[in-house]
Putative ABC transport system ATP-binding protein
Amino acid sequence: MSVLTLNNVSYKYEGTKKNVLTGISAAFEASKVYAIIGKSGSGKSTLLSLIAGLDVCEKGEILLGGSDLKKIDRDAYRAKSIGVIFQSFNLITNATALENIVLSMNISGVKEKNKQAIAYTLLEKVGIDRETADRKVLKLSGGEQQRVGIARALAHNPDIIIADEPTANLDTDTQNAILGILTELAHKENKCVIIVTHSKEVSSAADEIWGIQKGKIQFVGNGNK
Ligand SMILES: Nc1ncnc2c1ncn2[C@@H]1O[C@H](COP(=O)(O)OP(=O)(O)OP(=O)(O)O)[C@@H](O)[C@H]1O
């Protein structure tokens, strides 16, 4: 059963005439890694922002389980159901890795009292030990920062994780390590992981590859084989 379903979704930016996305339909399931590929300007980031609930499609519907995103509380959706990982990490660099996670938990309204302990555990899961967790983000390497970015996306235990070029600024070994973490989250923890990427290595590691071209989306094939 799909966790996220797009039915005939069309979108154009305000003040523009041409649709960026036209009649897109796709279904995304738990426990799978999806790669979204397509030329620069094809609409990949636009699709992610619709899925993330940052923007609303003008035609069609995006269903979370069976509920239309237009009709549910999108702030709550963002705080509970979806975790976002960015190319440029988007962390607070003057705070420690741990503080970044705890802050994100506070913003998402996570109620648990032992947030620090949970944050250390999340960071450990993505390969950040305690000593590193207590260091300011600006003193961490790019790969370490992206690990923190993943831990932050997991801070409210979302079902869906979306990532916009998560390995673009990283060397090959680090890229593979980050991909390994994202794949484990899907295969071992049943998350639905959707990655926008230009990288062949990333798309070939995905379970399913979908391509956007001329406003349409289509299944390209299976990676990971
Ligand atoms: N805020 C905006 N207002 C108007 N047009 C926009 C806006 N943001 C993006 N676009 C246009 O929408 C189209 C799709 O952009 P989008 O960023 O989704 O593409 P992309 O596939 O993610 O590209 P890239 O791979 O370069 O990041 C482009 O033609 C872009 O110029």
Residues 94 and 202 are 30 Å apart (CA to CA). The first helix runs from residue 44 to 51.
